[in-house]
Amino acid sequence: MEIDNFTIVVATGAIVFVLGTLFVFMWQRDRRAPWLGWLALGYLMGALATLFLAPRGNVPNLYSMGVGTAFLLLAFGFLWVSCRVFAGRRVIWLPIIAAPTLWMSSFIITGFSEMVGVRVIVASLPAAGFLLMAARELWLNRDEGLPSYGPAIGFFVSAGFFFAFRIAAVGLLPFPIGGLDLHPAAMATFNFVIFFHAAFISFLMVSLTKERHEAAQRTLAESDVLTGLPNRRAFVSDAERLMRRQKNIHSPLALLTLDLDHFKLVNDRYGHDAGDRVLGEFAKVLTASLRYEDLRFRMGGEEFCCLLPGLTLREAHAVAERICDTFQSTAVEVLGGTVRCTVSIGISSTDICGYVLEDLLSEADAATYEAKATGRNRAVLAIAAPKVPVPQTVGKVTEIRGRRRA
């Protein structure tokens, strides 16, 4: 049994309408995802386009091909907007309005509605542009690291290339793929390609939304609310991963353990709000003093930790000295006065500990203890040496080389 073109177009439109309606419900339930609203608008515009395209041949071309294709271009424009909003960028209305407007304006040209090849080119150019721009928006945001970015980009590129292919096939293939006379097989193929991409793009955009929400939950679980830094839980996973990477590329890794001096006195004298301010300012000092690739963590209380990939023990010592100097000169305004605090830092490196996280951390802890015991407000190196008993310290105790401060 042969299925006519009208049935094919209506069936495609019905499926696209269902997808658009589902996106409306999803957007209403999750207002944190405004891109779902734009995606719904795109799919509903596509469904509306089929209402005009389906009766082609029974109504004037101005209404079927003209208005129908205009709605189709709006649909592609809103797909681009949904990707743009997903990537955190603002909506640009000019291309969305210009594409269908220029398309409809073309019907003013005498005989344009009968120029099948020209119509295919004029309609396919903005369609391909919107789809490839959608892929570009996701590509620019791929550093977010969501697993579905790659497939989503691939499907948008594939859809864009399909419409670009229509331009190249104008004189070779029948309409609606090319510009020759309409053929049922070409119509079926065209609608299958549209449906195939629409279905997978909808699935992948939902996957991206889910993955982003899950990533946000993980970040919340592994972040310190007060300072915004990753917490001890994040340290365990990130440190092991970084340690493996540095070992594989034969590059050193330095570790700093940092402990604010006399922090309990700040809490006792000025209150816990003042202590929170001090912790917040110290987190800012860490961020300003370290490189982009360096990792910093709040381990709990007044204790912090930093991982410095690619730095030797001596190079990390220079970084620690800079942190000490900067924090010592930082004035924290609190209720009842101004507070200036200092920090004691212990430094270890894979240069002396090897690529074993427990050893790296224990050596740095031992050096931090020595920094506290020998005057505070200093950065101390842990250098391999015979074991010496140190209270509450695990692992080897190291030769200490630091400098006193006034």
From TrEMBL:
Annotated TM spans: 6-28, 35-55, 61-80, 92-112, 118-140, 152-173, 185-208
Top-level lineage group: Bacteria
Keyword Transmembrane appears in the UniProt entry: yes
Signal peptide feature range: none
A single GO molecular function term of this UniProt record: diguanylate cyclase activity
GO BP of this protein: cell adhesion involved in single-species biofilm formation; negative regulation of bacterial-type flagellum-dependent cell motility
Keyword Transferase in annotation: no
Enzyme Commission code(s) on record: 2.7.7.65
Catalysed reactions, semicolon-separated: 2 GTP = 3',3'-c-di-GMP + 2 diphosphate
InterPro entries recorded: Diguanylate_Cyclase, GGDEF_dom, Nucleotide_cyclase, Rev_trsase/Diguanyl_cyclase
Domain (GGDEF) ranges: 251-384
GO cellular-component term (any): plasma membrane
SMART domains: GGDEF
Keywords: Membrane, Transmembrane, Transmembrane helix
SUPFAM superfamilies assigned: Nucleotide cyclase
PANTHER family: DIGUANYLATE CYCLASE DGCM-RELATED (PTHR45138:SF9), REGULATORY COMPONENTS OF SENSORY TRANSDUCTION SYSTEM (PTHR45138)
Name used for this protein in its record: diguanylate cyclase
Lineage, opening ranks: Bacteria, Pseudomonadati, Pseudomonadota, Alphaproteobacteria, Hyphomicrobiales
